[in-house]
Write a structure and sequence with these properties.
Strand order of the largest sheet of chain B: 2-1-3-4-5
Distance between the termini of chain B: 51 Å
Number of domains of chain A: 2
Helix content of chain B: 25-40%
CATH class of the largest domain in chain A: Alpha Beta
Order of helices and strands of chain A: HHHHHHHHEHEEHEEHEE
Number of helices of chain A: 11
Structural class of chain B: alpha/beta
Helix content of chain A: 55-70%
Strand order of the largest sheet of chain A: 2-4-5-7-6
Number of domains of chain B: 2
Structural class of chain A: alpha+beta
Shape of chain A: rod-shaped
CATH superfamily of the largest domain in chain A: Histidine kinase-like ATPase, C-terminal domain
CATH architecture of the largest domain in chain A: 2-Layer Sandwich
Largest sheet of chain A: 5 strands, mixed
Strand content of chain A: 5-15%
Strand content of chain B: 25-35%
Oligomer: heterodimer
CATH class of the largest domain in chain B: Alpha Beta
Radius of gyration of chain A: 36 Å
CATH architecture of the largest domain in chain B: 3-Layer(aba) Sandwich
Radius of gyration of chain B: 21 Å
CATH superfamily of the largest domain in chain B: Response regulator
CATH topology of the largest domain in chain B: Rossmann fold
Shape of chain B: elongated
Number of strands of chain B: 15
Number of strands of chain A: 7
Order of helices and strands of chain B: EHEHEHEHEHHEEEEEHEEEEEH
CATH topology of the largest domain in chain A: Heat Shock Protein 90
Chain lengths: ~350, ~260
């Protein structure tokens, strides 16, 4: 959409801005002395009006040749050619106008008298067109910065949104209820074990507190949160829950958004291991390669189990948070087959400077 | 199915978590009249055990491997008093729709358990008689709206089969039962064909006859048969009658 043509108010302002240009043009035409005031006004007003519209076209050539990405040669070539074409058209129109006016008794012989003014009109035409080019580049730059601002705003709103949802989801109430039920069972049969489970649950809950406020945490911190979570689930599920880890030591210091993996591990328990009579394994894997951190969460699952409602929510949440923070610098893949459910995440391997 | 000669209440505990079973065992042990007949860790086991031991009371978890609590109930039919025990409060309405005696939330307090147990005894003594409506009908009625079956559990004696609807070729009505044809076998289930029809996705299954529902993916061709009716040939070669109304429905579906 043309920024000026698109809105009536803007077009009116733009044409108003051309009034002094018309006055200037009249003055220039009058100066050599061959033309009277009446002649120059009859020429300058319609010519300015027409050229005001011709110059609107500069917007499209500016948009097509972006200042940042096009080379100097291309810029000059494009705009000078456009300026020549625009001026040539303008001069043609001027010629027609002169001939038409000369046909009336009031302006008889105008076309003869104006002949000497052609180089002046040519120079003015080129100059005005190039001024319009400069004007549109400024306009485009403003537009781009506003666009960038609103995109940044959108991203931060999304990130905040995801954070809130993550916070709400960080402690799945059913996980809590089931854990409390296990503790209640243990108080009668194995009091020390009940105490241990209380402590593990407390440890997990404490670790989740305040995490939502941070933009990123070291991967190590997320892993210890997951260990605390799995330690609780291990008491609930006993031998049915098995864990495997393959974590490269250098990945531990790298940054990831907090609570990114916890919902995935929670899903792995709730929708994977918990649905299997004999239980199953959860495998965590992390590598850093070529400036990328690759994390894999894998679990066994029962392909025949009915799909439960909440299973997709956690995945969508993680995907959105990756999107909001990393855009296309992160990858998120889900694959299921052969009784194995696998989520893999790739994020840039970044490390924020932190006090040791 | 009332109490046996010794006046014992025979109970079955069904939960996939050992510790969850342990609490219920502890609470039940306070009642001398209760005998724990069995404990099961998944739905399949539960169906088998219940059909073998015909208990008076089932304490039933909902989210379990293989079969969920509602599917278990659908298969064992009316008889034992059922108390659901779960961490999820969102199934409560469904639970009472299938005439569960009570619905306990984990962690379960002993007071709440005692209240449920009192209701169980009331039900067993016949003061509030068990409802005679077939449980399969109720379980089907209690399905969350706008959600069609993706699998059908079927029981043959103590064995349980799960038929994914994608493997269901057609359904044939047989009195109070339906015969589910899948992979060359027929499985009987106590349910009416109208009830099953309502539970199946209408975009995939069509009632082509008073006695038949067909999986539309399986229909190879439909030909006229006699004056009024048609016959559908399935990809496996089976031929099913198509009534006039059924043919109209089939046409409406194909024209879409």
């Amino acid at each position: 959409m043309h920024p000026i043509l698109g809105q009536f108010r803007r077009l009116a302002l733009y044409l108003l801005a051309w009034t002094p240009i018309a006055a200037l043009l009249a003055l220039l035409l009058h100066m050599p002395g061959a033309l009277g005031w009446r002649d120059v006004i009859a020429l300058a007003v319609p010519l300015s009006l027409i050229y005001a519209f011709v110059c609107l076209s500069a917007y499209y050539s500016c948009r097509a040749t972006a200042l940042e990405t096009s080379g100097l040669v291309r810029l000059l070539l494009t705009h000078l050619t456009a300026a020549l074409v625009a001026t040539w058209i303008w001069l043609g129109v001027a010629r027609l106008l002169e001939v038409e006016l000369a046909a009336t008794p009031m302006f008889a012989g105008l076309d003869q008298r104006v002949a000497s003014a052609t180089p002046l009109l040519f120079g003015t035409g080129i100059l005005l067109y190039l001024l319009s080019v400069a004007f549109y580049y400024v306009l485009l730059a403003l537009e781009a910065s506003r666009e960038a601002e609103s995109r940044a705003l959108r991203a931060s709103i999304l990130a905040r949104d995801a954070e809130l949802r993550a916070l709400k989801a960080q402690v799945n109430p059913h996980f809590l209820f089931n854990s409390l039920n296990s503790i209640s069972a243990l108080t009668a049969s194995d009091a020390p074990k009940a105490r241990e489970m209380c402590i593990l649950l407390g440890d997990f809950l404490r670790r989740t507190l305040g995490l939502g406020e941070k933009a990123v945490i070291p991967f190590e911190e997320e892993m210890s949160l997951i260990h605390a979570f799995l330690a609780v689930e291990k008491i609930r599920f006993g031998a049915r829950l098995r864990m495997q880890e393959e974590i490269e030591a250098e990945t531990l210091a790298l940054d990831i958004p907090p609570l990114l993996l916890q919902p995935l591990v929670e899903n792995a328990v709730a929708h994977g291991v918990a649905n299997l009579v004999e239980g199953g394994a959860i495998r965590l894997e992390a590598h850093s390669r070529h400036g990328q951190l690759l994390i894999v969460v894998e679990n066994s699952y029962d392909p025949d189990a009915p799909v439960r409602r909440r299973s997709g929510v956690g995945l969508a949440n993680v995907r959105q948070r990756l999107d909001a923070r990393y855009g296309n610098r992160a990858a998120f893949n889900v694959a299921a087959g052969g009784g194995i459910f696998r989520v893999s995440i790739t994020v840039p391997a970044e490390k924020e400077a932190r006090p040791a | 199915m009332s109490r046996d000669a010794a006046g014992k209440i025979r109970a079955v505990i069904v939960d996939d978590e050992e510790l969850a079973r342990q609490v219920l065992r502890e609470y039940l042990s306070a009642h001398r009249e209760v005998e724990i007949a069995a404990e099961c860790a998944n739905g399949f086991e539960a169906v088998k055990v219940v059909s073998e031991t015909s208990p008076d009371l089932i304490l039933l978890d909902i989210q379990m491997p293989k079969l969920d609590g509602f599917e278990v109930l659908e298969l064992i039919g009316a008889g034992p008093a059922v108390v659901f025990v779960t961490a999820f409060d969102d199934y409560a309405i469904r639970a009472f729709e299938v005439h569960a005696v009570d619905y306990l939330l984990k962690p379960v307090s002993s007071e709440r358990f005692e209240a449920a147990f009192a209701r169980v005894k009331e039900r067993l003594s016949g003061k509030s008689p068990a409802v005679k409506i077939p449980v399969a009908e109720l379980a089907a009625a209690a399905r969350p709206p706008a959600q069609y079956l993706d699998r059908i559990p079927v029981r043959d004696g103590a064995r349980v089969f799960i038929i994914p609807v994608s493997k269901l070729d057609y359904v044939e009505a047989q009195d109070d039962y339906v015969a589910l044809a899948s992979e060359g076998k027929k499985h009987l289930k106590q349910q009416t064909i109208a009830n099953l029809e309502a539970a199946l996705d209408p975009a995939r299954f069509l009632r082509i006859h008073r006695s038949y529902i067909v999986n539309l993916d399986r229909v190879a061709k439909v030909e006229p048969y006699g004056k009024e009716s048609h016959v559908a040939t399935l990809s496996g070669g089976v031929q099913l009658p198509v009534s006039r109304a059924g043919y109209a429905r089939l046409r409406a579906f194909l024209d879409r």
